[in-house]
């Protein structure tokens, strides 16, 4: 971060992700991150999917964090930010163990979810949380494709959209 010309992190609340969907929130977050930069970049690289209508030229890169240092740096900033948020939630919700698993779907996190149900920070639209809620209510798991979202490498609290410029 000390070497970046500018950086900006946007945190999207879990309720917004449940209401609007992960992709919409990611695109909105990237737009907000771009608008928040102190320096306007001449070009934007996004990881995986295009973001149309930006005020600057952009290129979507498949596995961008593996091929572009600025995208990899942005991913690290987002992960570290999310990990800090999750550790910060631990005192409020110690029964979930957020300080240790950072919201990832680990066996200890799934056991805590099964025992206590989701807290307000859990994304109820995510399949692992939906499955626990349904099981606690004595209902069968949802059918594949019905209200489920899958996030690779994302935590259970708010989502981060990251943009680094360097």
Describe this structure in words.
The chain has 166 residues and is of the alpha+beta class. It has one domain: Nucleotidyltransferase, domain 5, CATH 3.30.420.10. It has seven helices and four strands. It has a two-stranded antiparallel ribbon. Helix 1 crosses helix 2. The C terminus is likely disordered.
What is the beta-strand fraction?
5-15%
Q: Which topology does CATH recognise? A: Nucleotidyltransferase, domain 5
- The strand order across the widest sheet is 1-4
CATH architecture label name: 2-Layer Sandwich
The tally of strands reads 4
CATH fourth-tier homologous superfamily: Ribonuclease H-like superfamily/Ribonuclease H
> What is the molecular shape?
elongated
- Span of the ends, CA to CA: 9 Å
Radius of gyration: 17 Å
Percent helix range: 40-55%
* Overall average pLDDT: 85
* Helix and strand sequence: EHHEEHHHHHE
Q: What is the CATH level 1 assignment?
A: Alpha Beta
Largest sheet features: 2 strands, antiparallel
> What low-confidence regions span 5 or more consecutive residues with pLDDT below 50?
146-166
Would you tell me the structural class of the helices and strands? alpha+beta
DSSP helical segment count: 7
What is the number of domains?
Answer: 1
